[in-house]
């Protein structure tokens, strides 16, 4: 019986590390992801696959592609925003200046 109590206490401690003190799940945001204001226009909604959540869309500074916040059963992460054909939606990249 004592082992069950120790196991239950350990399980509570282990699971409590997954939740912030405010009660929400911890989400670490990549510093390369920049928030985008007014990205979710009608044109983007028409282009993006309807199964994606467009409430939190960001631009990945590394490649200029749009990502959206996906809340799965285990973790919350940012995934590439894809069009209805399955290709990633990216913004035009500026060409590097030649010397």
Describe this protein with a few key phrases:
single chain, alpha+beta
Structure commentary:
- The chain is α+β, with helices and mostly antiparallel strands.
- Helices cover 21% and strands 18% of the residues.
- It has 2 helices and 4 strands.
- The termini are far apart.
- 7% of the residues are buried.
- Residues 21-26 have low confidence and may be disordered.
Secondary-structure topology with pairs:
Layout: H1 2-16, E1 33-35, H2 42-47, E2 57-60, E3 66-71, E4 76-80
N- to C-terminal distance: 75 Å
As residue ranges, the low-confidence spans are 21-26
Give me the number of helical elements.
Answer: 2
Shape: elongated
Work out the helicity level.
10-25%
Q: Mind telling me the C-alpha Rg?
A: 20 Å
Number of strands: 4
Main sheet record = 4 strands, antiparallel
Q: Output the helix-strand order.
A: HEHEEE
Mean pLDDT: 75
Numbering strands along the chain, what is their spatial order in the largest sheet? 1-2-3-4
SSE-based structural type: alpha+beta
Strand content of the residues, in percent?
A: 15-25%
